[in-house]
Amino acid sequence: MKKARSQMSDVRSQKENKKFLLLLLLIAHYSLFMFFIGCEKTPTERIDDNSKPPFLLSATTDADSINVDFDTLYTVSPDSGKTFTLSLPVVAIARDSQGGGSISSLHFTIFKPRSSSVVKSGVLHRDSTNFDSAWFSSVVTFRMKRTEPGIYRFEFYAEDNARWKSNAVSVPLLITRKNSPPILGLPTLQRHTPIGSDSSFITISLSVTDSNGIENVQNVLVRPQNAVDSSFQLMYDDGLYEHRDIFPGDGIFSTVFWITPVDSINKVVLKFFAIDFTGDTSNIVHRSLQNQLPAILFANIFPDSARIPTSGSIPILFSATVSDSDGLGDIDEVYFRRIYSPDTSYFHFPLFDDGEIASGDSVANDGTYSIILPLSSSATVGSKQYRFFVRDKFGAIDSSGTRFLYLHN
Ligand SMILES: [Ca+2]
Ligand SMILES: [Ca+2]
Ligand SMILES: [Ca+2]
Ligand SMILES: [Ca+2]
Predict the structure, then answer these.
(1) What is the layout of strands, in order, in the sheet containing 313-324?
(2) Which residue among 13, 111, 324, 390 is least enclosed by CB atoms within 10 Å?
(3) What are 139-194's pLDDT values in tens digits?
(4) Measured between alpha carbons, how far is 237 from 207 in angstroms, rounded to an integer?
(5) Which residues are placed with Cβ below 5 angstroms of ligand 3, an ion?
């Protein structure tokens, strides 16, 4: 420019020079102005200046509270309502003085209520990039247990190309679920009355469920009626032998105590109920100390006619369906015996209600018991008779079912 000005000064008068200088000054100002404007609009001119971290302007979740029992828009419940998958749209906007394009990623982390344990972390998808900002969004999915409601915390931050991290924005998400009362199953009961005693020693256990988790159950109580002492007794899920509880925390509550009946032990009725920490009470279950007899409803051998194999063995399925008005939990054992003439064998074959293929039992705990036994080549020809038995926890037995198996060559 100096060169241009000196060349021109040779041919122009001083007056013209003054005008020209003024014009030059104006051009210089304008250029300087354009230079700064240009800086704002074209960050590539100063890409080496990475001294400024990005700034996270906002981060929002589509909902600030979710009730997993009602808000089906955001929740699906697998595992019969024990766990939930939540899908929640989130949006975040970050700004960077080096331009929206220099923001490389937007991170999120979800924390459990009152905890630093991470439920999920990841990055959001980039939606659009502006001259000084970038928009990100995603549908974030994560799993939670029904027993873990509370305030979950989303934390977001942006990162730029120079790995500068922005401020963090924390978004709370309140997750609630409906309280449900505890549900009592049928109690199982054993009683022992020493000879010559007025009193009976009672061992009871009862399964309790609560969809909010077994730890939501505060107390399980039993109260004898028509007994000399009819005060409430606590039941325990502590795994202690003194309460005859086998496993702690499995939802099976047990206890033992002596009962002295007012009149007859058969007139004593136990009343059970539970209360949870929300104050909701369970269904009430009654159990008489008068035993209801078990019964064989149906017994079967399949096939009931078979050719004795020349080698190896063939499977024979034995099954029996039983009942007890005190509940299937009162069934102690189901078994069968071969009936000889004369009956000298006391060996018995137990049947199982475990739903296992090996037992030939299709559904567990439905009162149908089965066993598959091999018929070998050493079996003898003839019609074999089998008797089926069911015994309950009081020791009462029904042995009314008999079936034949015809074996031939
Ligand atoms: Ca509950
Ligand atoms: Ca237990
Ligand atoms: Ca019974
Ligand atoms: Ca079964």
Answers:
(1) 294-302, 313-324, 368-376
(2) 13
(3) 999 999 988 889 999 999 999 999 999 999 999 999 998 888 999 998 988 888 89
(4) 10
(5) 291-292, 324, 326, 330, 392
